[in-house]
Specification:
The protein has 230 residues and is α/β, with parallel strands linked by helices. The chain contains six helices and nine strands. A hairpin with a 5-residue loop joins strand 8 and strand 9.
Length: 230
């Protein structure tokens, strides 16, 4: 969809206005959403709904999150343009694409190889060269690249993952949905203080697919050159 087309522009403006009404006020975040064509990150069958403020299925039992939730998580990270970010759960790549416009580098991990390859194609098409992808178990984080200034998890964990907290730099921020599968999830923001104490803030109710450790059975043990599965 050409962003200059009146219909496309109208849909984008309507979405941005809805996000502002919902309390999203960071102009950098809104600008990143405006520049990121969401229709590229959804299946063709759902392109007409790409600018609706709803989650949409992307295959493999996964979804691309509601734009408001993406905006809220991104705004809550308080990103600086020198920050190094870890994303757990690449999915369609939409969240990573927005993060890449606000941070120095984004490292993203996905356990479904097909989704990751499709996301990589989208990043290349949009010339987003500061995103580094990995096929592997996101529940383990990415220890070799730690510490990270910011970490965002796009799947719900039963509790705040200690392994991800350990990969967060002092002064860093972790955003993660926590709660039972598909219900009763709260979006939490953890700030890691230099003295070893952490503060946790509740950002409200959300609904995410669960954070599943390990790799899908059909994916395990089928690594391609240059791809890591640990």
């Amino acid at each position: 969809m050409n962003p200059q087309e009146p219909a496309a522009l109208a849909k984008t403006v309507r979405l941005l206005m809805e996000l502002r009404r919902g309390g999203i006020g960071d102009h950098r975040v809104l600008g990143a959403i405006e520049k990121t064509p969401r229709e590229m990150f959804v299946p063709a069958a759902f392109e007409d709904q790409a600018y609706e403020n709803i989650a949409l299925p992307i295959g493999n039992g996964q979804t691309v999150s509601q734009p408001y939730v993406v905006a809220l998580m991104t705004e809550s990270l308080e990103l600086g343009d020198r920050d190094k970010v870890l994303e757990i759960g690449t999915g369609s790549g939409y969240q990573a694409a927005i993060l890449s416009r606000l941070a120095r580098r984004v490292f993203t991990v996905e356990r479904h190889r097909e989704l990751l390859r499709e996301a990589e194609r989208r990043f290349a098409a949009l010339r987003l060269g500061n995103i580094v992808c990995r096929f592997g178990d996101g529940a383990k984080g990415w220890a070799e690249q730690a510490p990270f200034d910011r970490i965002v998890v796009t799947a719900a964990a039963p509790e705040i993952p200690a392994v991800l907290v350990s990969q967060l730099a002092p002064g860093g921020i972790l955003i993660v949905p926590v709660g039972a599968e598909y219900r009763d999830q709260r979006l939490l923001r953890l700030c890691r203080r230099g003295d070893g104490e952490n503060t946790v803030e509740d950002l409200g109710w959300v609904r995410f697919v669960p954070l599943v450790p390990g790799l899908p059975r059909l994916e395990a043990g089928v690594g391609a050159p240059g791809e890591s599965e640990d």
